[in-house]
Write a structure and sequence with these properties.
The complex is a heterodimer of chains A (102) and B (390).
Chain A lengths: L10 H6 L4 H7 L3 E5 L6 H9 L8 E6 L4 H12 L2 E8 L2 E7 L3
Parallel strand pairs in A: 1-2
Antiparallel strand pairs in A: 2-4, 3-4
Chain B lengths: L2 H12 L5 H18 L6 H14 L15 H19 L5 E3 L2 H20 L4 H10 L3 H27 L9 E3 L10 H21 L3 H20 L3 H6 L8 H22 L15 H17 L3 H9 L3 H23 L12 H31 L7
Antiparallel strand pairs in B: 1-2
Helix pairs in contact in B: 2-9, 2-11, 3-4, 3-14, 4-8, 4-9, 4-13, 5-12, 5-14, 6-7, 6-11, 7-12, 8-9, 9-13, 11-15, 13-14
Classes of the chains: A alpha+beta (102), B mainly alpha (390).
Amino acid sequence: MSAWIKAGYGVARQRETPPAPAAAAAAAPAAVVDCRGLSCPWPSRKVANAIGEVAPGGVLEVLATDPGAPGDLKAFARRTGHRIVEQSQVGAVLRILVQRAQ
Amino acid sequence: VTGPALSAQYTAVFGRPWPVWAAAVLVATINVFLFAFDRPWTASDGLRNWGDWVLTGLGLAHRPDLVAPWLYSGSLLNLGVLLGGLTAALLSREFAIRVPPRGELVKGAGGGLLMGGGAMLAFGCNVGGFFSAVSALSLSGFGMMLGLGLGAFLGLRYLLWEMERRPGWSSGAARVWGAPAADTPSRQPLVGLLLALALLALPFVYAGGGYPAQGVFLLFGVVFGVVFQRSRFCLVRAFREPFMTGDAEHTRAAALALAVSMLGFTILKFTDLKDRGDWVFAGAGLGALAGGTLFGVGMTLAGGCGAGSIWRAGEGQVKLWAALAGFALGASLARLALVQAGALGKLGWAVFLPSVLGWGGAILLTLAVLLAWALLATWNEDARVVSALE
């Protein structure tokens, strides 16, 4: 995915912060799905595509700006057995961690 | 009332999404109120009004009978949905101008054009030609339902192909403006509150100017917009999701909304409070099927239907701004072409189901179709016969 042009949401800074060591083992994302700027149905569509590349139990980090993305991903997880393990927001950017089913 | 209690209530309404089934019942009920007041809900005739207005202003079309957008009921409903979506997004701190990658803007505009053209063939978009038409027991609504399902399937096939073969068309530089900052309290709820007060005052302004009904149409639209933005209840999802993840929550909600709305419309017609021919369109046949299919493809590409494009545009999604522009232009041009070709009367038959099946038969048939739709989609959730998960 090419450059993301934006002003001051601190996403890049936030991603550089090293995560707490205890949580790191469980939640260190294996890959990032960047859906910033995209609307429905891309977030759940792209996660469905990318989760196959992650090992069972591995975590995908999803970045999205569509307010509908968390609900879409919850519905996706409900149907597939994958898990939403974390959700946070910095400015307009939602960060959702999806763990692949074992 | 204490501060924390008030804050908890605010969070319940504007911090969390509303339950989809509750939104479905609300939307259906408000649609019945709107029909009782004057006319059912529709989005495409208001969008065509905007397209006609622009084309007339540019001197490209001649419509001496054109009602100005700020006075036309369909246009005011749409404006209300737009402003309602904006108000709810602000109150929920979810407003931001989201500019997608360029490929998405092209799909938005193209999907909009298809929706505009399809809506003219089917005598309405998925709201007027399907939701309100089925509620009015018009056979054309069921024809459009078939078309919408086929169109959603075809549109999704295209999106899957695009993701596989042309990943660049849905990725690339995007921008976001005006989102709440990460570290300071957002001013969005305050702006939203002021906007809500202004919207409540507008009907009084309209009434003072001698147009009491017009302000009420606007308010109906605002309520639709708020309910949709807070619940994200979506007819595109109702048709598309069974073919995608398989999730049927919105399909069941749509069936529930149609059942409630149909019963309300039928009471109004049976008691002769409303004319039996209201919202029964001469589109049962090729018009509803072809129009529904075009519309179904278009709404899947755009990521929003007649209603969804409008409230999503209100919460700042620029892809849906492109969809609305395409929709308005497509509707205007398609209608002009249909009138020029003299094809308006050849799109199908106007069939009011009770005149064929009796009142009881028409109600039972409609409920059976809706129940079958919801049950099949629910069964598919686990069976995944038609879903394309990977």
